Amino acid sequence: MNAGNLQCSGCRQWKMQFTASAKCVSLARRLAGDVLDAWGYAQDDAARVLLVCSELAANAVQHAGVPGRLFEVRVEDEGAACLVEVSDASRRMPRRVRADEEAEHGRGLWLVSVLAEEVGDRLRTPLGKTVWARVPLHVPAEPDIAGEQVSSGCGDDTPGA
């Protein structure tokens, strides 16, 4: 595993590479949770981000795990949102499937799309792909001068709504 806690101008980032195994999915979730906690994320925000992280990492291991290759989890704080990226060595792009009521699998990408305001994927050079999701964060209302709560405009509003 290679760890990094990268700082850049105006943003916070963390990334780490993991062996493509099921037990590393839970490790990725735990370590990303430690980072979100250190960044001061509210519990409900962190829970949504970690669920997205877990689903994307599980997909990387289950559907794109290439023997001898790693997958990478990257988390970036964007202020009003958190960007989660999971990269793997496969060039096979993810596709959402319709799972029947009794299926044990097939709901991960649907769940990610419900929790995220944007979801996408891209090929990587020289190898593999990255699947990403931008998870909106709850921004607490700011008190106005009279002490009443007013919206900061960054809460649950959806772009273009």
Q: Could you describe the 3D structure shown?
A:
It is a single chain. Helix content is 29%, strand content 30%. With 161 residues, it is of the alpha+beta class. It has a 6-stranded antiparallel sheet, with helices on one face. Strands 7-8 form a two-stranded antiparallel sheet. β7 and β8 form a beta hairpin. The longest helix is centred in the first third of the chain and has 22 residues, at 43-64.
Annotate the secondary structure layout.
Layout: E1 3-8, E2 11-19, H1 22-38, H2 43-64, E3 70-77, E4 81-88, H3 108-115, E5 118-123, E6 129-136, E7 142-143, E8 149-150
Antiparallel strand pairs: 1-2, 2-3, 3-4, 4-6, 5-6, 7-8
Helix pairs in contact: 1-2, 2-3
Structural class: alpha+beta
Helix content: 25-40%
**Poorly predicted spans:** 1-9, 147-161
Q: Averaging pLDDT over every residue, what do you get? A: 81
End-to-end distance, in Å?
41 Å
Count all strands and give the number: 8
* Strand and helix order: EEHHEEHEEEE
The gross shape turns out to be: globular
The largest sheet is: 6 strands, antiparallel
Residue fraction in strands: 25-35%
Radius of gyration: 17 Å
Q: Major sheet: order of its strands? A: 1-2-3-4-6-5
Q: So how many helices?
A: 3
